[in-house]
Protein 1
Amino acid sequence: MQSRRVGVAHEQLASGLLRNLVSSLLRLYPASADGEAIVLATPAPERHEFGLLLSALLAAMQGWRVVNLGADLPAHEIAQAVRLTNRGFCC
């Protein structure tokens, strides 16, 4: 009898599909040149990114210029990206 248990491989497959779907939806909302910028990231060691991706989608739908740095970044790198974004030098 086959096990009906959901394993790590199933979780990775579902995660990849969801990541691709949200990324595709983000492309429907191109960044506005005059839109306010929002920097999104999760600090180290947080590796979960679905909240981040959904936040990026919601922000893009509202006209924000989304700078999505991704998950698991050192805090000083996030702060530097925010400074550069506010100066118009980033992303």
Protein 2
Amino acid sequence: MSWLILIFLVPLVLVPLVFLMGFVGCGFHPATVPSAPSDLVATAISPTEIDLTWTDNAPTNTTAFRIDRSGNGPMSTTIPASPGTQHYQYADTAGLTPETDYEYQVFAIVSGPTAAGSNMAPATTFAIPPSFAIAYNIPLTTDDPGLEGRTIVQRIDAGHITSAGAKVRLTLRGSTVANLVINKVTISQPATAGHAWDSAADLIEVRFGGASGATIPANTEKTSDITNYTLVLGKDLLIAFDISTTDGSARRATMPGPTQYFKPNTAEAAVQTRSPNYQTFSGRVSIVEKIEVAP
């Protein structure tokens, strides 16, 4: 009877043991989860493109990357990894819209499992550049040195302004022989009362590269940033300049219509109601060579 029991029990013990040893001998191991990518940076390139760069911290194990995008139009895409490559870049152009915030995260993948994600990286797509029209363009023909330390108020008559718009861009011209350094530039309509060189309440600063003023080397021009200012037809326009005390060589032209006002030893470009006794030059335009407008 005991032999019969052994006959039945031995297979029940040996068979599971053999299977277990077989699996151990096969060297079975779970897939390794890679280290998370790092140093993710998102950089807007245009109104419809954001470029990503990141570092792979497991270049021998990573087989692919999953890129997740959140924001207006979330997206997830997978790209292959290159063995041994540590630094990656990716251009996202999938349905991005201008002036929109997005955020990205990158995940490393090996044979299925996904690592912890990289840092989050935000970026905002650029605005679509406006289409500009020329509202004023008078080539400046004569060097005009010796303007150091002056405020110059250029009054451009309505007859020379041919287009209107809500955005303005100025092009300024220095002389051919020396530098022109301007500490501040403003734009406005003339005041309805007071002096002819006084500004209305719409006085606003025009900036260059995000900063006040502009340095214009000899024989060159300088274009301003886009300024949110409503330029209207049928009205004169004031553009005022504070010239530095060191470099004041500009360029001018003579023609009917514009009037130039200036006062030495002052800095009133940003002042709405300016002091009296500005000197007057009728039929002269200086420094500002072109005005462009956009809707």
Protein 3
Amino acid sequence: MRTITAQFLVATLCLLLLTAVSASTVSVGERAPDFALRTLDGKNLRLSEYRSEVVVLNFWASWCNKCRDAMPTLNSLHTQYQNAGLHVLAIGVDGESHKALEFVDAAGVSFPVLADSKKGSVSRMYDLGSMPLTLIIDREGNVRHIHIGFKKGSGATIAAEVADLLAE
């Protein structure tokens, strides 16, 4: 009897955990959760303002080396495709704007950089577990590609995915 009860409890807890995880995780094919954040230069931006455009959304932190590695690719995409309907948005999760500004200046970032609040509400909405996290969102606001981390070849893959979406 104890074994059956213990197994039932374990199965129930696993089911609850899976339900909680799946409810908060952003998946390919789902609508990207909308948010409003302030840019480092003080403007308010809302993700839904970019519907009908392709968006590359990147989560980063100043202490993240792979985030640094991703910035040249994001800058290149912004420069190459901004007139074709691409918007690159980066969300800094440091919680300290002076570190974010130093990072952005050092990386030569040419696209809007937003600051997640100290409470990290947008990071939680997107279930940020590791960085960088890069999402490619189509013109209807749906997540089409998700990249966790930044490895050799990631830049070329992201660029090809963006080009394909812009051609649709």
Protein 4
Amino acid sequence: MRRLLFVDDDEAIRKLFRLNLGDDYEIIDTADAEEALALAMEHKPDAILLDLHMPKFSGLDLCRTFHSFSQTNLVPILVISGALTDAAKEACATLGASAFFTKPIDFDALRSRLATIKRHTMTPRSEVRVRLRIPLKLCGSNGNGAVFEETATTENVSLSGFMCTSATAFQKDSVVEVFLAKNGRQKVARARCVRTDVREGEPTQYAFRFIEKTGNWILK
């Protein structure tokens, strides 16, 4: 069963989520934003549902915290809030939030979004990520339709994908052809961009998940 971490200071809302999603997901919930990181690292959820407005520790700060730790920075974050400004959405998206829902929650829409995340972006909890810097060639077209061939360097790799830095700005769901640069033109996979990590003063990082493998990847 898939596992969700839900962070909200309202017990009635947490109970509502358990009632609506508990048949399909194991729900770990907390009202304490300061406890949320420890729970995420202990239980390794497949997605995090995060209330944006909480006392003492804002949802934006918590989103930033999740995004700064290697154990949690690839976990999809869905922001839940009674009111969402464009500025708040932009800030959370920059920190890796993949969806936004306003209260009262449309649970059919939420289930649909969770199913999409389940298919395209979740990494098995048993999968090991290895910090490894490997040169790649990424080929495809950018958000404006321009064809590119870009050299990228991985930050970490797993059986199902990798995180890398690149001079090309990738949009979420962009699809690229992946080649191992040091082996010439050996194509190893097609991959989808599932997460963008923008940090001030540092190169942007992109998380990719394989759609299909066509050659020998770094990990086997």
